[in-house]
Each structure stands twice: as structure tokens, then as C-alpha cells.
Specification:
This protein is of the alpha/beta class. It has an eight-stranded mixed sheet with strand order 1-2-4-3-5-6-9-10, sandwiched between helices. Strands 7-8 form a two-stranded antiparallel sheet. Helix 3 packs across helix 4, helix 5 packs across helix 8 and helix 8 crosses helix 10. It is globular and about 75 Å long.
């Protein structure tokens, strides 16, 4: 989430390493986040194309990628920790979710990271996967069924039929973990949903919330920082109204001069996306997840915005933290670095971006807007009607508002069980998720100083005490769930 036409091909002419922002998200780098080295093996699972129609697509199958390690597993007894892959290459999630392998070492678990259909190398129809009608099999329900079938068959193959399964996920992957526990409690004993905007993506909440919370991150560092950002966007607006496109090109080092209001709209979106990504990835140490990011990027951004009197240059250099981390770009190409899509927080580029754009046009509701009143960004509306028109033109589909709420319970989750909802207070997605515990087995953990699913990352000496405590709570609850499931299974022996 936070992808902006998710990903990819990432404009190889440029060496910008990031361009994503998501639930979520393009995880381009493959640098592991530290901690335990899991030694994953890459495998492929023969998966059913359409789980719900026996006459569809010739009853075909496709190869679904997954990563597995039994390095820590007490064979046939230890639990199975299953990551419900989200919108990107599964290696990037596996190599940046070190908490799961750390916990596996403690609890002697088998670890599996499953790639979501239509992402990474799990393309059901190869390069034709995003044609109509082939793309129609990209749904949440199909993805959940994939995971349910994979878990069931792998347990049989590995002699693990009595091993309790716990699912994990971050952002959209966290949503899928919740849905797995709701939809398949016969298969999944519990779920850790980190930074899962399970309410806002179901159409619940305030359309102003997301960019308001991005702004709040920068406001908390220094009020003058957000004032500088507002001022820079105001200067850009004045130049565009005068059609002083040469000045804009020079100030922002654009490869081509803008020549229309649409180009200015595109520039505003590209700049806004950079702030979104820095707010999401405001980790206390440098990372190579969704690109190269310095430690505390929001603080770095504010320092950059306030370092001189030329606000436009400051704004350009602040965006460069995201788009030019390597420092090798000589100019910025507006339409290669950023694409508009049905997710105003970002889709990225390439095939993964197509997949997320389609999902944002069908089941995932992401109608967020900036308005320059409750946030520091230019007014950029994205209403249900704008979404409908875009999706009809792009994919020949009509969105179904409220479907996730109907299908997966929306805010009526109180009868579910064994789910952890974790959120960091620095994450703009947090207030789109569950922030208070709903019962003794539906636990909300709020992580002070935590960015986007920080708790899933491996341990780091720079971690705030809050995330260390959250991981301890998560580990204890998961151990309890595993014990409860073993007791339940023994009753049927």
C-alpha cells in the first residue's frame, strides 16, 4: 500500500532505488535486515488457477513461488510460521522480516513465505497475466484459497499434519493474515497482523486521515518543517499559474520542462509520494527496504527542508532522499519515477504495480485525499466517483464499495479470536487499522516510535524499547496459541 502504481521495471534508465511508498508496497532491494540468517530455499507449488469455478480457465494451474527453511524446525512437532505474501517479490519480504525467523529459532518452527498470485514470479499467465479476462483471477479470496491449499498440502508432504500454523503479515499482508484466521480457522491457529489498515481499506474511516497523519509525522519533528513544505508547494502553485515552466524545470531539475496543468499535477503527486514513503519507513536505522533510506528519514527530510532560503530547491532535495538515494540521477523524469493509479498513496512501477492497481480498482478501497488544510500537500482529490471512472476506463471494472466490509467483517471483528493487531504511531497507515483490543484474544499493540511494521523486522540495537516489548508480547501470545492448538488437535487423536 503505498505503492503508486506499484512497481515496476523501475525505470531502469534511472537508478532510483525506491518508488513505492503501501499497505502497501515495491521492495526492490534484497538486503536482509540482520538477525538470524534463515537460509531459505526457493520452491514452486502447483496451484489451482480458479478455486471457485470448476469450468474456468480450463481447470488450469500455475507455479506459485514460496520460500522455506526448516533450519530451526523440530520436525513433525514444531509450529509452522507462514507469511501471507503481499504485493511484491516474496524475497524482499522474507529478507526484511527477521522477527519471524528469530521467533522460529526460539519456538523451533518451520518457516514458509508464500508469494501472492500475480506478484513477483507467481504470474498465472506469464506476461499476459494483466490482460482481460486473465487478470480477473486476482482477488483476495483467490489468494487466501491459495494459501489454504498450500498450507494443507505442504503439511501432508512434510509430515507436519499435527503442527499448529500461525500466519504473519505486514501491511496488506497483515490484512491477509487476519482474513486467513477469519476464513480458515480450521487451518490457521492465530495471526499476527502488523500495520494492517484493515478498516480504512474496507471503506471505513476518514478520507483525510492518511495524508493528515503523514503531515503529523513531520509536524512532530518541527512545526516549521511542515510550514516550509506548505510554502514550497505554494510557490510551485504560483509558478504554474503563471506558466513559468522553465523556472519549475530548473528548480526541480526535471528532464523535460512541464507544459500543462497535468504535468504539474504529476509533479505534485511525485513529491507527495516521497513524503509518504519517508513517513512509512521512519525507522531508527538505515534500511534497504523499498530502496535505500537513511536512519530517521523524517528528521533528515526536515533538516533538508530547513537548510536554506530556496524552498523549491529544498523540496527537490528532500524528494531526492527517496528518488535519488544513490546520487546518480542528473534529472528527474516525472512519468518514469511515478505513476498515478487507483491508490493515491502509491503503486510503484512495473508488473507489480499493475496487479496492485487492479486490486485497488476492485476490492481494496483507497480513496484518500490531500487538501492543504488538514495536511501540508496540494489539494488532490480522489473520490469514489474519480475511482469509478478511472477503473472503468483502465480495467473495465466497476468497484464494489463495501465488499471487504461484507466479506471480512469490517469493524465487526469482536467474535474472531487469536489475532494480534500491531501498529506503530509513526505509521500513517496505523489509524486505518485496529488500535484497541477487542477482546482477550484480539489484542491491539500500539508501538511508540514505531514505523510501518517495525515489529516484523529483525532485532536492532537502535530499536525503541516499545518494539522490543511488543515483540515479547507477540512471542508469548503465539506460544500460547500453539499450545492451545496442540491441545485441541490431541483431542482428535
Amino acid at each position: 500500500m503505498s505503492k503508486i502504481l506499484f512497481f515496476f521495471s523501475v525505470a531502469l534508465a534511472f537508478s532510483a532505488d525506491v518508488l513505492h511508498s503501501l499497505p502497501y508496497l515495491y521492495y526492490q532491494s534484497r538486503n536482509y535486515d540482520g538477525s538470524t540468517d534463515p537460509h531459505f530455499t526457493e520452491k514452486f507449488f502447483t496451484q489451482t488457477l480458479d478455486h471457485f469455478n470448476f469450468n474456468s480457465m480450463g481447470n488450469g494451474t500455475f507455479n506459485q513461488r514460496y520460500l522455506i527453511t526448516d533450519q530451526y524446525w523440530k520436525k513433525g512437532y514444531g509450529p509452522i510460521f507462514f507469511y501471507t505474501g503481499n504485493e511484491g517479490n516474496i524475497w524482499d519480504f522474507a529478507l526484511n522480516s527477521g522477527f519471524i525467523t528469530e521467533l522460529a529459532a526460539q519456538q523451533r518452527a518451520l518457516v514458509i513465505f508464500a508469494e501472492h498470485r500475480y506478484y513477483g514470479e507467481s504470474l498465472p499467465f506469464g506476461n499476459n497475466s494483466f490482460s482481460v479476462p486473465q487478470v480477473s483471477l486476482l482477488t483476495v479470496e483467490q489468494a487466501l484459497a491459495d494459501y489454504a491449499v498450500m498450507i494443507t498440502e505442504l503439511k501432508q508432504q512434510l509430515g507436519a499434519t499435527d503442527c499448529p500454523v500461525i500466519v504473519f503479515g505486514g501491511s496488506y499482508g497483515g490484512m491477509l493474515s487476519v482474513y486467513m484466521r477469519i476464513k480458515y480457522p480450521n487451518i490457521v491457529a492465530g495471526a499476527l497482523a502488523a500495520s494492517a489498515p484493515i478498516l480504512s481499506t474496507a471503506g471505513l474511516g476518514d478520507s483525510r486521515q492518511f495524508f493528515r497523519d503523514v503531515t503529523a509525522d513531520f509536524e512532530s519533528v518541527a512545526p516549521e518543517c511542515t510550514n516550509a513544505v506548505r510554502g514550497a508547494f505554494h510557490q510551485l502553485k504560483e509558478l504554474s499559474e503563471r506558466q513559468d515552466y522553465g523556472h519549475i524545470q530548473a528548480a526541480f531539475a526535471l528532464c523535460k520542462p512541464p507544459s500543462s496543468p497535468q504535468d504539474i499535477h504529476q509533479l505534485n503527486g511525485l513529491l507527495r509520494n516521497a513524503f509518504t514513503l519517508m513517513a512509512m519507513l521512519d525507522y531508527p536505522y538505515s534500511t534497504h527496504f523499498m530502496g535505500n533510506m537513511p536512519a530517521n528519514p523524517v528528521k533528515v527530510a526536515c533538516k533538508t527542508m530547513l537548510r536554506g532560503l530556496d524552498l523549491l530547491v529544498n523540496l527537490r532535495d528532500t524528494a531526492g532522499i527517496v528518488y535519488n538515494a544513490t546520487g546518480t540521477l542528473t534529472c528527474f523524469d516525472l512519468y518514469s519515477l511515478y505513476l498515478e493509479c487507483a491508490d493515491p498513496t502509491g503503486c510503484g512501477l512495473g508488473f507489480d504495480s499493475l496487479a496492485w492497481d487492479y486490486q485497488a480498482c476492485t476490492e481494496i478501497e483507497l480513496c484518500y485525499e490531500s487538501n492543504n488544510e488538514t495536511d501540508m500537500f496540494p489539494p488532490m482529490a480522489f473520490t469514489k466517483e474519480i475511482r469509478r471512472l478511472y477503473c472503468s476506463k483502465r480495467w473495465a471494472v466497476v468497484p464494489r464499495p463495501g465488499w471487504l466490509k461484507i466479506q471480512f467483517w469490517g469493524d465487526a471483528l469482536s467474535t474472531a479470536s487469536n489475532i494480534i493487531f500491531s501498529n506503530g504511531d509513526l505509521d500513517p497507515w496505523a489509524n486505518g487499522g485496529v488500535r484497541r483490543s477487542l477482546s482477550s484474544s484480539l489484542t491491539a499493540l500500539n508501538i511508540s516510535g514505531g514505523a510501518h511494521h517495525l515489529d516484523l523486522r529483525g532485532s536492532n540495537e537502535a530499536d525503541p524499547v516499545s518494539v522490543v516489548s511488543a515483540r515479547k508480547t507477540e512471542a508469548d501470545l503465539i506460544a500460547q496459541w500453539v499450545k492451545m492448538e496442540r491441545t485441541r488437535l490431541q483431542k482428535f487423536v
